[in-house]
Each structure stands twice: as structure tokens, then as C-alpha cells.
Amino acid sequence: MEAAAGAAGSLLGKLLTKLSDDLVAAYVDSLELGHNSDQIQTKLLHTQGLLQLAEGRDASNIPALPALLEKLSKKADEAEDVLDELHYFKIQDQLDGTDYAAADLGDGLRGHARHGRHAARHTIGNWFPCFSCSRAQDADSAPTAAVNNDVDKLHFDRVAMSSKIKSVINDIHSLCDPVSDLLSKIPSSSTAVTLKRPPIGSTIIQDTLHGRQDIFEKIVSDITSGTHHGQTVSVLPIVGPGGIGKTTFTQHLYNDGRTEEHFAVMVWVCVSTDFDVLKLTNQILNCIPATENEAAIEITNLDRLQKSIAQRLKSKRFLIVLDDIWKCDSEDEWKTLLAPFTKGEAKGSMVLVTTRFPKLARMMKTVDPVELQGLESNDFFTFFEACIIGSSQPSDKNYMEGLVENGFLMKGVSKYPPFRKYYVMHDLMHELSRSVSAQECLNISDLDFRAEAIPQSIRHLSITIQNRYDENFREEMGKLKGRIDIVNLRTLMIFRQYEESIAEILKDTFKETNGLRILLIAVKSLESLPQSFSKLIHLQYLQIGSPYGREITLPSTLSRFYHLKFLDLSSWYGSSNLPKDISRLVNLHDFLAKKELHSNVPEVGKMKYLHGLKEFHVKKESVGFDLRELGKLRELGGTLCINNLENVATKEEATGAKLVLKRDLKELTLVWGRAQPTDIDADILDALQPHSNLRTLRIMNQGGTACPSWLCPEILVNNLKTLHLHGLSWGTLPPFGQLPYLRELSLKSISGVLQIGPDYGGFTGTCFMQLKKFLFEDLSDLVQWVVEPNCHMFPILESIDCRNCPNLCVMPFSECSCTSLSRLYIDSCPKLCLPPMPHTSTLTDLAVQKGPTWRERMLSYNGKELVVSKYAGALAFHNLGEVEDMSVGDVSHISWTNIEKLKSLRKLAVGKCDSMFCGELDGGVVFHNMDKVESLRVGVSHLTGKLLSKVFSSCPTLAELEIRSPIPPEDEEERVIQFPSSSSLRTLSFSFSNGLILVPAEGGGGIQDIASLQSLAVYDCHKLLSRWAMGESGVAPMTNPFPSSLSQLHISGESSMRSMALLSNLTSLTYLGLIDCANLTVDGFNPLITVNLKRLEVWNSGGNSLAEGLLSEVARNKLMHAGSFQLERLNVDSILAVLVAPICTHLSATLHELSFFNDKRPKGFTEEQENAFQLLTSLEKLGFYGCKVLQSLPQGLHRLSSLKQLEVNSCPELRWLPEQGFPTSLQALHLWFGSAEQKELAEKLKETYPDLQVHYYH
């Protein structure tokens, strides 16, 4: 019964809201119901009050009450609908200047004529059903009209409306009496329910008192030495809403040292909801120290308790705190409690009372109460941080992780690039919300849902569309129409897009739904919208989405949803054209959409409740895009960008925007779109003065020569945190130093600025105390940035960006300490003299470059990594102690001695610095402080064995070495080296070392003897193995060039390698890559090297296929048995070699990824190959790359139940997909660089498989 009473009470509340509208009330009063709207509201309020009182009581002895409440709820619901409909037509009358829905307030000819006209229409409507207007009727109900077409309005039927209102109001009126009568007979609960409040003492829990310092100091002064000092006892109430901080504030007063010193006796009592004079008096007495001769006896008599208190406090100054008082039945009761405290001889005693009820404060006070207000914004956020984060606020802590650790959120990563992190609500919290709302809210997400299991009371329905539906879904949706009240459904949310067959089912199911308040839907065409879409006059929240790449227009009927408060088009990717009369949405509060849609709203001023507008474009040629439209938006806030201000004709028009009145506007951008200034530009900018609450201001391309009066000589918008000035020619810059909260300052493309300093920009004295970011860019005339000596500016400046200032010579690196500076970016400032970098130890993000692209970067540093390339400036190595990774290229002034100073260095790359190697390293010096270097990349033209030995001596823990030693084409010198021994090297790489030749070391010591080596890569060296004997066919060479410890080997572009016999000892390999080794044959191949492989890549861009011979050898080998392979990834250039039963049998249990590269022979797949494909039961990813003549994919693809990803790259002839489609496990299909037919194919696949991620790249 309690739920029924609550529901009925809520619906009566909604009905009362509708009746409170003056126009609706006037219409109801004109219907001659026998009782006016005030009387109706009084009865509804009375019934609602009884319903509220009935909650929590036992009504089991009144079995008829639930049925009556259900009837009352339905009638209240019906009444809300009909009054909402009436209000709709009232709005339409206001918009059109008509009076079809006006109340008949007299018996004049006009009223009779109007009523007669509607009566005639109603009579005809009874003859012809198409004119029946029991509900609002639409002359053209199709939602697919073009966006710019005129929309027929809904017609108002006065007779039908009047009849319906009379009927439903009379029904409610007749139900209220019996319901009220039964409610009054429900007995009160036998046990009074007492609100339990947690007791709180005087001990401070929150150590810091945030804000309110002024009022705190005043009260301390008043109670210790101020206005209350002459009174025997004063009562000071501290009053405010719950949670405002009354108790915390009083705790700090109570525990202040000045308070404790002033009062001899201090008592704290938590009163809460139990104001019992005897109990409170006893508690207070027990807190007051007894006198020396007082007997210790238990007192229960109030008179004796009061006399004992008076005796103990007779000559003492005291402070009594009565915290959290919720009730006190009478003033006499309060005076009785207070009586013993008024008898003392000492002056200046105090009673502090905290309560949330002003009425109690007024009754108890002897002095004016202190009313606590909310904290100021800065104090509030400090308090908020303290509550949520705690006091320590470690700089390296991710606060979201705390919410994850405590189970409120869970963290996930998206399945596809760019692999974004996201947070989701925990399942338990989600399940709790579903359980609570199960009788009214339902989500259909299962393919096999059953309509009979759904509660008939469902009013809010959501459907999560799945990939495929069978005929059962159509049947169950048909049953659903008869199961729940589809007509009066209040919420309908359809998640995900769906194909046409599903659209038809949904349209049929919801074709009669016309009471929706909330609708969320994604459509591929306007035909997918509900059939009743144009008649959803009650709609208050609407979200419409559309797919990428479809130029769908918004339905023209959108503009007649006059009750709409929230319109969400943030997922609309169709046309940016809006219905031309979209401004008829006069109740719209929130409009979520891309900025192009915001800027296309004509006469936006009619939407007077609109909270946000991203962009407004001033247009001369179009009506409704005058700046005065903004002036009508009194509640406009958030972010606003005004474009095309060059089209503003007069200062009066600019003044009409009334920006100075928009106190909720936080971010404003003013943009002029042309280069040529006009005489009125300055006046227009003057008239666009924003409110002082503004936080971010951008002014771009304004043509005037003077700074506006609200920025110069005094800044009136002094709460700015961000200021961007771009493309200006002002003779004077604003005094930026007057902005106490400024955090970000950007000056870009401002002509005539020779100096930034005291005389230009207000860089004087103690200012910029909050500035964190400063950017100046394209200041072609700027010569210097100077500051006054010993200035106290920029204490928390974190970032300086200086870009394209070709004449800049001076920056105040030495004058300003900038102790918080962490980022410095210098770009295209060729005359700027820099000190040794980084010039301060706080810098952790440093870049110096000579042009805008990353290729022109000369110096970069991020705290751990240092890159120096063609940089001639000095480095402050004493500030680089944390560098772990350093790259040096094409410089001559950095030596090994310098690098030795980097105590934390782990990785070092040196290229085009031959002087560094030929000088110090060729000498006899050993650099012992390089013992932490684990990775070294060396690029040097003349590599020698002696040089390698010195490197290994200087870096004893070296684990990774990359050698890049190219020689010019004209230099045909062959450099034969013997590799020094090492006990720590694990990874070795040779790349583009076209003259380098390895030879077997006499007496050992070559690469083959480095037992620690695990990974070796060779890229485009051409001659590296030319001195190694390849052995006779099928016979291994006497020595192998590589150690048997290798687990990973990659060789590409190595023409000197001719026989697989060189690899015969590598039986521990888990990865083998042989790519574009044109002369390599399978001679000497040892099948045992494949036993431990997890990844194998063997392919050539042209010529013979090594993979065919290699896999044929594996298939023929008698030592191999089914399941012996561990291969997980296979990339080869021969479809024929892989898709044979013996190979696929070996691979069936482990192979997850299979890719074919550059196989230019097959057009399709034979039956034998199709059958072999089915053996790959673990395959998850399949790819075809550069298969130029391939026309079709395997037909049995749909049976690969584990396949998740399919990629086709540069296969232009591919035209046919498998007839049976794809497996249900497939999640993503990527088509790269294909034909126009493949692009069309991708679009069709998106429609056929809405849950499949289909991507086409060209």
C-alpha cells in the first residue's frame, strides 16, 4: 500500500503543478465544473497530504484502498496528459498570435462564434473519423518532411478538449472524497518513529576550518571581550541548513584557546530530536564540576537539579553549547531549561545553540542569530579537495584509482585503437538500481526475452539492440503491445542502430505510443522514427543519433515539440541544417549538439530559457542572426563563441547582445572574420563588454587600434583566469598584472609589440601571482621581454611557449627565478640567446627547434629523456642528473666526458658524431661512470673492432647494442670486424651497415661465442655473412655464425645469406623472421629449429617463395607429429604452402594469427584448401596483404568460430565475400587501400552487421 500511496501522491503533485499555470487554471475555470481551479487544488492538496501521512502506516484492514488509489493514480495521470495537451496549445497560440485555446471568459459574440466553430468541427468529426480530435491531430503525421518545408500545425478541438477536462476532473473530484475518507481511518502507528541523529561531541574531527574566518574572529571577540561581556548570560543561535557546517564551526569556537581561557566552565551537550528538559538538565549538571562540600547523590527532581546547577555556577563564567536542536515545543519549555543559568553572579556567560530551524533560533535568542551561508567558491573547492583527496595530495597520485580501489568504479580499455581507458559503474550498484525500479522500468537486451514475464506496470522501457533477431522477437514484441500500456508509455530508449527489418517491428510496436516524455533513438533514415513521432507533444527529452556518412536531414516536425526541455543531437552526424522554425522550441533549456548546429539556429532569442549556445554567427543576409538575439537569452551560460563580428552594423546592435548581464557565462570568444578593419570595430568591441564573472576571454582578428575601455586602462573583467589575444593591432596592451586570478595568457599575431615589460603589458611589481601558462607567438616585432630588477612575479609559472618571434633577443632567464617552471618551448626564434639548458632544475619539458615540425627539433628533454640534434648551444649537465635515455646526433661539442656526468644514464644513442669516437674512445681512456648503461645505439662511419672493445670496456653491463655503420656509395671499402666477447649482451642489431663484414674469429671470441645473446636482428646489411662458408647441400657448416642461445632472430634484406644451414644450431628459437633474403635457399635446413617457434615470418617481396620449401620440408619430416608445433603467429608469402592438411593439422591447436603477404598467384581457394582452413580451430586473426589477384575469401569462413579480426590490405581484385557470411565471433573487419567496390562493400556490411566494427582506409 505504501508504494501505491507514494505513486498516487507523486502524480497528484504533477497535476497540481499543471493546475498552477495561470492560463490552464483560467481555462479550467471557464468550463463551469461547479468548482473552480482553486477549489480543485485545495482538494488535491488535502488528499496529497493524507497520502503522505499514510506512508508507513498499516492499511491492511482497508482492502479497498489500494484499488481506489490505483484508480486515482490513473485518473491523475490522464489529467496530467490532457492539461499538458492544453498547455501545448496555449504555447502554440502565443507563438502564432492566435486564441484557439483561450478561455471563454464571457458570453460575447466572439466567444460564441469560436465555440460554435469548434462544435461544428467536432460534429463533422463524429461523421468522419479522420476529423476526430479526441487527441491532438496532425494534418501530416509523417516525420520525413524536408527540413526546410513548412510544417502543418496541430489543430485544437475545443469541444473535445473541454469535454475531456470536465470528465477527468470530475472523476478525480469524485475519487478524492472516498480516498480521503479511507485514509483518515488508517490508525496511527502504535510506536512513534523517532528520527535517530548521531550524537556529536566537542572534539574537532575536521582539523581545518575552511572559510568563514571573518565571522569566526568576530564571534570569538564578541563572546570573550565584546558586546556580550556585560550580560549575565546571552543566547547566541547559529542557524543554517543541514550540512552547512554549524557543528564544525561551533567545535572550532569551543576549542579555540581564547575561548578556553575566558570561560571557567565549558559544557557541550548534543540535543538532537529529544528535547527533554529533565534529561538535558541532568546531562549539563553531570558536566559541571561539583563544589567541595557537595554530597555525591543521584538527583531525579528537576527543582533540585536546577538549584545544584545554579550553586555550581554561582560565581563562574561559563559556556554551554546545545548542539543540533530539532525541536522545542514551547517557549516556556525553553525558559525552564535556561532558568538555572540566569542566576549567576559572573558576567559574560554564553549559551551557544545550533539548529537548522530559524523559528527555534528566533524563540531562543537573546542576541541576533548567526546565519551561516555556503562557502565561497575557492573555500568550497579547498574543502572539497580535503574531503575527497585528503590532506597529503601527493603529486604523483591518480585520484581516480582511489574510486576504483574502493569498488565504486571499474577501469577498462577499449578493444580497438587508440585503446582509450574508461571507467564504468560497478555491477552491484547497477543491479541495485534495476531491482528498486523493476516494476516500472525495463531493459530488453536478451534475444530470447518473454513478454509474459514483464510486469504490466512498466512505464519506462529501453531496448538494447542485438546483432540478429529471429521471428521470435517479432512475436514477443507483438505480445508486448497487449501486455503493457504502450499508449501511455513515458520513456522509450533504443540503444544502438538497427537494420530496416528491426525498424519495421519497432514502428509497429510503438505506433500508438503518444504519451512519451523521453525518447532516445538512433536512425539510419527518417522512416525509422516511430510512426507517432510527429504527435509526441508531451516530449521533454529527445536524443536522436545517426550514422557517419549519411546525409540525413532532421525531421521538420522537430520544431513543434513545444514542451521539449532537453534536445541531444551530440550523436547526430547527418545534415547540419535545422528546421527553419526551430526557435519555436520556447521551453528548451539544454541543446547538446556540434557547434555547426548551434550556429544554425535562427531567432535563437525566442528560446529564452536556453542555458548554452556554443556558437553564434552574425549574418547580414539572413533574418534572425542579429546580435540582439543573444540579448534575449537571459539564462545563457557556459561557453559562447561569436563569429563574423565584421557583420555587425552598429554599436547599438552590439549593445543589444547584453553580454554584461550574462553572469553565468564562463567562456567567451569574439571573432572577426576579415582582415580589413572598419571605423566602428572599436565601438563594437566596447559594446561587447562581458560580465565580471567571466573566466575565459578570447579576442581574435578585431580590426581596431585601441584596447576596449573595459580592458584599458583598468580591467573590469577582473575574474579572468584565461586571456587570449590574437590578430590585433592595439597601440597599448591591457595591464595584465591587474588580473589577480590570471592563470593562462596568450598573445598571438599582435603587430607593433617591441617589448613585453613594465611599459607594455603591465609587467610591474608583485603581480602574476597565479599565472601558470604564458604563450607568445608570431610577434614579428618583439625584441625583448624584460622585467624589473628583483621582481616578485611568476611564483607558480609552469609553462612558457615562445614561437616564431624572429627578432626576439632577450628573455628574463636570470631576472626571474620562476621556481615552478617545468615547461619551456622555443620555436623559430633564431636570434634568442639561451643560457645552458635546462637552466633550472625544475624544467622537465624542454624543446628548442628551428621550425614548426618535429623534424626541426634540435633539443628536447622530458626529465628522463634527452635528445640533442644539430644543437649548438651549451647544456647544463648539472641539471640533467635524472636523465636515463640520451640521444646525440650531428653535434661536435659534446664529449664522452660530458656524457659521463649523467649518473642515471641507462640508454645512449650516438649518431653522426665520428669525432667523439675517433677522439676520446680511440685513446686509452676508460670511462668508469658508464657502468649503468644497458643499451647503446652507435651510428658511426668507420667502425673497428678496437672501437667496439673500448665500448664494451666502458659499458660493462651493456645488454643491448645496435650498430648502424653505413658508408657512402662511392666508398667500396669492406670493413671486416671481429666481435669482442661479452658476458652481459642479450640483444644485438645491425642495420644499414652496407660495408660491414663479420668473419669467424680465430680462437673464438666472435658473435657465436656470446652465450648470453638472446635476440639478433639484421637489416639491409647485404655483405654481413659473405665470409661464412655455407656448407654443402644438406650439410651444416663447420661453424655457425650465431650462438645457439638465440631465442629471436630477424634477418631482412641480407643478400649474402644463401643457405639455411647457417641456422641449423638454433633449436631454441621462439621467433624467426626471414624477409626479402633473395638468395636464401632451404639447403641445410634443420626442421628442429621450428620445434619451439611461436612466431614465424618468411616472405619475399618478389621472386621465389622460401616459405614453400621450408613448410614442405616440415610436412615431409618424419620426426614431426600432430600437435608438436607451438606456433601462434605465422606470416608467409604462399597460400599454397600453408593450406594443406599436414601443416594445418600441426597448427590446429596453437595458431592464433595467420597472414599472407605478396602472394600474387591464387585468385581463390580450392576445395582442398577450404578443408584445410577448417582445421585451424584456434585462429583469431586472419590477414591478406598485397595479394594482387585474389578475388574471393574462403567460403567456409563462417565456420571459424574463434575468428575475431579480419584484415584485407592492397588486394584490389577482391570482389566477393563468403556467401554464408562471417562467424558470429568476428568483431572487426579492416579494408585497406582497396577499390571503389570494396568501399561500397564496407558500407553494406555496416548495415548488415551493426555490431561489427567495419573500417575502410584509403
Structure description:
By secondary structure, the protein is an alpha/beta fold. Among the domains are: 183 residues, no CATH class; 172 residues, P-loop containing nucleotide triphosphate hydrolases (Rossmann fold), CATH 3.40.50.300; 30 residues, no CATH class; 96 residues; 129 residues; 138 residues, Leucine-rich repeat, LRR (right-handed beta-alpha superhelix), CATH 3.80.10. It contains 30 helices and 45 strands. The chain has a 27-stranded mixed beta sheet. The chain has a 7-stranded parallel beta sheet with strand order 8-9-10-11-12-13-14, with no helix packed on it. Helix 22 links the parallel strand 17 and strand 18. The protein is globular and about 115 Å long. About 4% of the residues have low confidence.
